[in-house]
Design goal:
By secondary structure, the protein is mainly α. The chain has 13 helices and 2 strands, in the order H-E-E-H-H-H-H-H-H-H-H-H-H-H-H. Strands 1-2 form a two-stranded antiparallel ribbon. The longest helix has 33 residues. The protein starts with 15 loop residues before the first helix and ends with a helix.
Length: 284
């Protein structure tokens, strides 16, 4: 199909409604958030309209640096863990029959219907001392007594990987389904073992897809809010949790808006990088 160049003003009519929705639900709120980020906090009220850089200057504090570093580290860990688990799983899934693939995909879609609250409290139950998984280890003789596995970094990482893993598989699935099977056949013919062929052929062939998936999961994990609160300690809170804490409990809306602007800009930059990688892959 050949793309026709718009010739009249009426040809742009289908773009009016999406453009209006984008303006109302993104441009206007984001503009207000940017404006508030330069306001001055008023201890007796909410904030006072002004134009100061004090809120952005707080980014240089040790506390903010620690929260930002932890948020980035946690998002990177979730992205890497999801891709490492999902890539071989999805590859093996594409080798199964259509019926098996359908059952697994329906199961993954059903997991996506679960809210973050349900996932958080389900994992908090599994990691608890009274009804958690350690009671099974005690019954098997692997532990002497049950203990709680939360709050902690491991619990936060596990919950976030569980939440992001279905998205990762569903993103990787189309690329792996379209992978030319003759590439692996050629590698096997040349004497390569299946694991070696997977590492040396499949992974390089889908390098751009893997990078785009890593970025997508990173952005998804960077905005996590409930799971770090439910499964972690205050030192495991992400930037999103800190934004809510400053806006609601500390009544410091300007600083919360400045952090939100910073988080949105990081997310938009990474999304733009993902689109660029996808465009290059399509062109290749």
């Amino acid at each position: 199909m050949r793309r026709e160049v718009p010739k009249a003003l009426a040809d742009y009519t289908p773009l009016v409604f999406p453009g209006l929705m984008l303006t109302v639900f993104f441009v206007v709120p984001f503009s207000i958030m940017i404006a508030v980020s330069f306001f001055k906090r008023n201890p007796s009220g909410f904030y006072t309209p002004d134009f100061v850089f004090d809120n952005y200057a707080r980014f240089l504090s040790t506390f903010f640096g620690g929260v930002l570093a932890f948020s980035l580290m946690l998002a990177i860990a979730v992205a890497v863990a999801c891709v490492v688990i999902a890539f071989p799983f999805t590859y093996l899934l594409t080798k199964q029959s259509r019926r098996v693939q359908t059952v697994w995909l329906v199961g993954l879609l059903s997991i996506l219907s679960l809210s973050e609250v349900i996932i958080g409290f389900a994992w908090s139950t599994l990691f608890s001392r009274t009804a958690g998984i350690t009671n099974l280890f005690v019954a098997l003789g692997l532990m002497s007594e049950p203990k709680a596995l939360l709050p902690g970094f491991g619990a936060v990482l596990t919950g976030m990987v569980y939440q992001a893993l279905p998205y990762t598989i569903l993103v990787l699935y189309p690329a792996l389904v379209r992978l030319d099977p003759t590439l692996l056949e050629a590698a096997r013919t040349l004497g390569s073992s299946p694991p070696r062929a997977f590492v040396n052929v499949v992974v390089p062939a889908l390098r751009n897809t893997i990078v785009a998936t890593l970025i997508m999961v990173f952005v998804f994990a960077l905005g996590s809010y409930l799971l770090p609160q439910i499964l972690g300690r205050p030192q495991h809170w992400t930037l999103s949790v800190l934004i809510t804490d400053q806006a609601i409990y500390q009544s410091n809306m300007p600083f919360a808006a400045a952090m939100a602007v910073f988080l949105v800009l990081i997310s938009l930059g990474l999304v733009g990088l993902t689109l660029l990688i996808g465009r290059r892959e399509h062109a290749a």
